[in-house]
C-alpha cells in the first residue's frame, strides 16, 4: 500500500470536505429552481383565469350593450353589431352565441385545476350559475319582448360584468402580492446561498491555516530537530508551543535529547579517563625501566673503585637519561601543534637520503630494503625533518615485524603522474604477518601498541605529521599472512 505524507492526508480530508460543501450548494440551487417552478405554476394559473374571465366579461358586456340599444341605459363594454330597436331587431343567434361563449368560459374555469384556488372557493360555480340564469333571462326577453324581462336580463348581465371585474381586480392584486413575495423569497434564498458559499470558503481557509499552524509546522520542526540531532547536534532543542499532544511530544523529544546528550558526555568523560589511565600506565612503565637501570648503574658506579670503569658507568647513565628525554620530547610533540618549516625539495632524492641510515640496520637483520622514488613529483613543499621522522618510524616498524630473509619495499607515488600531480605519497610494504582486523581501527591512536616493548607513539606521530602537512596516513592493505602496506599521502603544495 502506498504511504501518504501527513500533508497528503490532510489534503484528502480537505478535498472530502470540499465535496460535501459542493453537494450542499448544489442542493440549495436545486431547491431554488424547485421553488421557482412551484411559484411559476400559480402565475400561469392566474393568467389562464384572467383570460377566461375576460372572455366571460366581454360576452356579458356585449350582450348587455346589444340589449340596451335604443334605451337610455349606458353601455358598459363594446357594443355588438346589431340593428333595430327591441327584441325583434336583435340578432337572436349572435346574442345566444355570446351566452354560449360565457357559459363555456365558466365551464373551463370549473374544469381547470388550481383556478378555483386563484379565484376563490366557489367563485367559478357561482359565475356559471349566474351566466346560466342570465341566459335564461335573455331567452325569456327574446321570446316575450317585454321591457320588464329586458330589465331583468340587463340587471343579471350587469351583475355578471361587475362581479367578473371585481374578481379580476382581486386576482391581479393577489398576483402582484404573490410576485412580490416570490421576489423576496428569491432574494433571501440567493443571500442564503451566497452566505453559505462564503462561510464554506472561509471555513476551508481557516481549516488550512489551523492545520498548518497546529500540526504541520510542529511536525516539520520535530523532523528537522530529529535530522539535526542525528547529525550530531546534541544541543539542538525544539521550541515547545502551547499545549496538546504535539507540544508534549516536543517536550519529550527535548527531554530525550537532554538524556542522550548527558549520556554522551558521560561516556566521553569515561573514555577520556580510561585513555588517560592507559597512557599514564604506559608512561610509568616506560620510565620505570630506565629509572631502574639508572639506579642500578649509579649503585655500580658508586661502588666502583676504578676511575675509568666509574666514568664508563656514569657515561651510560647520562646516555640512558638522554634517551628518556628524547622519548618524553616525542611524547610532548604529540600533544601540541607543530610549526612546519617547509622547504622545496626533490622528494625522490630526499626519500633515499632519509632512509639511508636504515639500510645497514635492515641488512644486519637479513632484510632487503628497496627504495623507489622515481614516480615522485619533481618538487614538493615539506618539512623535511618532521616528515623524515615519520617515514623512519614506518620503516623501523617494518624492520621489526619482517623476519630475516624478508623484504621491505618503499616507493613514492603521485596521483596524476609527475606531469601535474595534486597529491603524492609514500607506501611502505613490509614482510611481516600483517595487521589483524580487530586492531585496524586503533593503529593510529596514541599509546596503542601490540608490541611488548612498544610505546604506541610511532604510528600516532606519523598520522600527526601527515595531518600537519594537510595529508593523511592510513593502512592501505592489512596483508594478513603476506605483509601490510602503510601509506602516507601529501599535497604537492
Structure description:
It contains eleven helices and seven strands. The model is unreliable at 80-84 (pLDDT under 50). The protein is an alpha+beta fold and 493 residues long. It starts with 5 loop residues before the first helix and ends with a strand. Helices cover 66% and strands 8% of the residues. It has helices at residues 6-68, 92-111, 115-119, 123-144, 147-230, 245-303, 307-333, 347-354, 356-364, 384-401, 458-468; strands at residues 343-345, 368-372, 380-382, 407-414, 423-429, 472-477, 485-491.
Question: Keyphrases for this structure?
Answer:
rod-shaped, two-stranded antiparallel ribbon, 7 strands
Care to give the gist of this entry?
The protein has helices spanning 6-68, 92-111, 115-119, 123-144, 147-230, 245-303, 307-333, 347-354, 356-364, 384-401, 458-468, and strands spanning 343-345, 368-372, 380-382, 407-414, 423-429, 472-477, 485-491. It has 493 residues and is of the alpha+beta class.
